[in-house]
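Section 5.1 Outputs to date
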Amino acid sequence: MKILDCSRDQDAIAQAASAVGHGELVVLPTDTVYGVGADAFSPTAVDKLLTAKGRGRDKPSPVLVASVADAEKLTTHVPDVARALMDEFWPGALTIILPAREEIGWDLGETGGTVALRMPDNPIALDLLATAGPMAVSSANLTAQHPAATVAQARQQLGEKVSLYLDGGECGGGEPSTIVIVGEQLTIVRRGAIPDSEIARFGMLAQ
């Protein structure tokens, strides 16, 4: 296990990307809370992630991306309303669930053929994602425990299960992202940092 201070370790991102490429788990800061991530395209790494959190396959991990273009490569279609949400809230605390490309051959858990995508508003996270590629990322805490706002809190919960921790200081958000399914209506499946009223500006909310 290694902890790297991103303000002092100039090769921290390169080391983290290398760890991801070798199928290891990495803790990273985001704009909401600290996350624990793995190579989204490695079923073994994703399984390691779910196991580390004590999470079942019925709760698949979202995928973080460095850009809208990266998100477009992972979904079969980006509806106009989804693109409008991305334009307004990305990078930021909104996770959008869209149909996944089957030909990718990944295994994020029981997704029902969808993928939950988010572009975080954090320079460390974006640098890592741009270097390592899209990552399956979940909050860096054990299931049912409080999300980590600092790398120390993440380490306390996940310990040696994680190969490398990126210390980017305290996360300012503290509240997880809002998760929305984009369909004929907008379905909020988890309330978070972006309130319902903001989402409702872009379409009718399912009751």
